[in-house]
């Protein structure tokens, strides 16, 4: 404790006597020694010397009143600021310095040493040093409490798609992880034909639903359920359900459009192949290369279903291929736009299972002329021998139905492609680890490799464990690969506590 004055210092030879005890001292505005002032004035009066901090062991956050929980490391500036805000009366004096006094980390005690000043007794400035002890009490924060109580939620977003495979869900998962819209989600739950996302706030669930609707063509229904009602305060407690249904069309599906819809899309052929799913359904006519985009509103006005699934596709071998010249294409007035990414070609095929025994070749026209050559394996849908129960398909004339619709080229063996794959994706915990789901996810990874446009919005991470020495875009079999420049370092996955598979746990 010492005096500080703002007046001109007297000459060093001048001394006075303390008015209380008579001790010889240097002149000061109070005319008293430090010991006498200490008995009369305590500038720290009104400031508590003990306080309590609340700490959540689950998420390692401290409570900042009234209801905010913040992350603070020991002896950090954030923790010091939190400790100073807990002291009442600190605004009545001048704070000069503050710092931590070392304590045992397991003692649940935090000590802060404060240096303060205050003007007392006729203009004298008194400086004093004291220590405040904080007791750390444990308390579970509301977020951790809701995570522990799995049924404590206020809103749920039910995302559904009535398809046999989950390619659209995998693509949606990657967009959710990239934009981090799942951070306010309490937990996930896998259900029939989709996923359930649980939220504590209705506004968070509504924002999530709007995000999903902006990414994929879908429609939504909102409902609410009364949980409790207090008639005295006239308060109601509701649980809200947002149901989002994604169109039941996936990438590489063969569809048959209704006649009215096909005419409104520039008289596109009714038999089309879905080449991509974004905010709209991208279709291409394999006979003319005419393309069309269908948004969610258009689809639900005139809905249609897929003619084929991945399990119904048959492997064919290309025996011969001949490009179709522009003069030989079918054109007409009012025709819609044509694809510039594909090449129209006539292809002669043989089933791979009948290779060497079949005498007749199957002829079809395809949009995959830019990637096919004789000897390639390709997946297609056999319309001539398929048993299809579709009202729009049954109305088609026989001359408008092709024998085979080719969907995608096969690049080598799946197991070999998986072994050579030097990248990985971040994942959410969906609890859907079945053989069919794993097979669909492998197909989704292959789609990302084969289509650069499809992977533009996906974060792809380097797999250090399987990193290949050769960084060429193609291997010996011509299999498309993702370049190293398109990959991100997996440091973020390691910081999130994810495992070797890059899984991010939610809930």
Please tag this protein with its features.
single chain; 507 residues; alpha+beta; 7-stranded mixed sheet; 5-stranded mixed sheet; 11 helices; disordered C terminus
Report on the architecture of this protein:
The protein is of the alpha+beta class. Helix content is about 20%, strand content about 30%. It is built from 11 helices and 27 strands. Strands 1, 4, 5, 6, 7, 8 and 9 form a 7-stranded mixed beta sheet that branches. The protein has a 5-stranded mixed beta sheet with strand order 11-12-10-14-13. The radius of gyration is 36 Å and the shape is elongated. The two termini are about 55 Å apart. Mean pLDDT is about 85; it is low at about 5-10, about 470-475 and about 490-505.
Topology of this protein?
Blueprint: E1 2-4, E2 16-17, E3 24-25, H1 34-40, E4 50-56, E5 61-64, E6 68-70, H2 77-85, E7 94-101, E8 109-120, E9 124-138, H3 142-148, E10 155-160, H4 167-179, E11 185-191, E12 194-199, H5 202-215, E13 218-230, E14 235-246, E15 254-256, H6 259-264, E16 271-277, E17 281-284, E18 291-294, H7 296-301, E19 314-323, E20 345-351, E21 362-366, E22 377-382, H8 391-394, E23 404-410, H9 414-420, E24 423-425, E25 427-428, H10 435-450, E26 460-462, H11 491-495, E27 503-504
Summarize the model shown.
The chain is α+β, with helices and mostly antiparallel strands. It has helices at 34-40, 77-85, 142-148, 167-179, 202-215, 259-264, 296-301, 391-394, 414-420, 435-450, 491-495, and strands spanning 2-4, 16-17, 24-25, 50-56, 61-64, 68-70, 94-101, 109-120, 124-138, 155-160, 185-191, 194-199, 218-230, 235-246, 254-256, 271-277, 281-284, 291-294, 314-323, 345-351, 362-366, 377-382, 404-410, 423-425, 427-428, 460-462, 503-504. Helices cover 19% and strands 32% of the residues.
